[in-house]
Design a protein that fits this description.
By secondary structure, the chain is α+β, with helices and mostly antiparallel strands. Helices cover about 20% and strands about 40% of the residues. It has one domain: Aminopeptidase (3-Layer(aba) Sandwich).
Amino acid sequence: MAWDWAYPFMSLSTTCKSGDWRTFEIRAEGVADPGGDGWLYYAKPVGVELQDDEEYFASFKRIAQDLLQLEGVTNGLPVEYHGCGITRALIVEVARQHSVEIRSSRHRPSENETRTKAATAVWQGMVRDDLAFYDPTEDRFYYPRRH
């Protein structure tokens, strides 16, 4: 399982929509790709026994030296760990760790690029909180917000 081979990255504490405070262990794995190096991030709640396949997963791909793209997210954790802000917090921490800007995917399936409604909602929340911005010409969100 990928979790077992990934390196510890950080501990991340968030408040879920339910109001519960949760702490997640985040692990990371670098991957070489001809189209741009990437990083895979996994999250599991601390102190909770889960099945091997129950994990949160996010992938980021290097687009330029100072730019990573959030390629995809899958929250395979039990439902009580959905809506806990893992993606939002991870975007901030990955940007800080790599000293880069993070951009979203576009929703252009014909160009092999998709952005789900859930991902769009995360980014829209970051825009609402003045952390990110949306570029309608590119149909992409960016973190951090450019001033």
